[in-house]
């Protein structure tokens, strides 16, 4: 074949490849937005690339949760008072006989005419607490509103989350003087420790059993996780139950 013929063949092959790519990636306006409409093969190839990125993000989340498990704690030296539907309570009482406590600081204020929509969305996405309890973890909400108003609002919204009125400087001492946030605590006998805090967009990904356990010092307590020596762990899946079937 002459050099001219070889060049023509290469150009033809390149043109066929270009046409294949064009045909596999058409655009179409759908509901006012331009979308790519792919061939089934091109769609699966693109999905495979997305899956790689998703798996790396999952591994990054696992590495971040591991750092939380190994991070240092602060011992709590002050006593704090709360009001609940059953009367006064201490911070230790909020653990409800569990070792770990997740506290969400909800922005509900006294005589609140318009409770924070974002905080209410957080409450809507909290999982059934039986799954957290099975991992030795309690979760409660706290607010500055009086407990009578808290209870009325909680019942109106249909939430079963334990919710307490703060009676002192608890919010300010734990970086939620204004706004919202999440603090995590650990109890060892009479000693209480602060182990983690986040606010802002650090809260928006929370709401599953897994993401909540990932911010605790014990983590998911499954034996695939790297954790400090002495952490009690079980096999994954084996501890899972329907929420009404935990012992």
Q: Note the overall shape.
A: elongated
Radius of gyration, rounded? 26 Å
Largest beta sheet, briefly? 8 strands, mixed
- Indicate the structural class: alpha+beta
Low-pLDDT runs = none
Order of helices and strands: HEEHEEEHEHHEHEHEEH
CA(first)-CA(last) distance: 80 Å
Mean pLDDT rating? 93
Task: Provide a quick synopsis of the model.
With 247 residues, this protein is of the alpha+beta class.
List keywords for this structure.
single chain; 247 residues; alpha+beta; eight-stranded mixed beta sheet; 8 helices; 36% helix
Task: Detail the topology: elements first, then pairings.
Elements: H1 3-24, E1 25-30, E2 33-38, H2 40-70, E3 74-75, E4 81-84, E5 87-90, H3 91-94, E6 100-105, H4 117-124, H5 129-133, E7 137-143, H6 147-157, E8 163-166, H7 170-173, E9 181-188, E10 191-198, H8 209-213
Parallel strand pairs: 6-7, 7-8
Antiparallel strand pairs: 1-2, 3-10, 4-5, 4-8, 6-9, 9-10
Can you describe what's shown?
The protein is elongated. It has helices at residues 3-24, 40-70, 91-94, 117-124, 129-133, 147-157, 170-173, 209-213, and strands spanning 25-30, 33-38, 74-75, 81-84, 87-90, 100-105, 137-143, 163-166, 181-188, 191-198. It is 36% helix and 22% strand. The strands form two sheets. An eight-stranded mixed beta sheet has the order 3-10-9-6-7-8-4-5. The chain has a two-stranded antiparallel ribbon with strand order 1-2. With 247 residues, the protein is an alpha+beta fold.
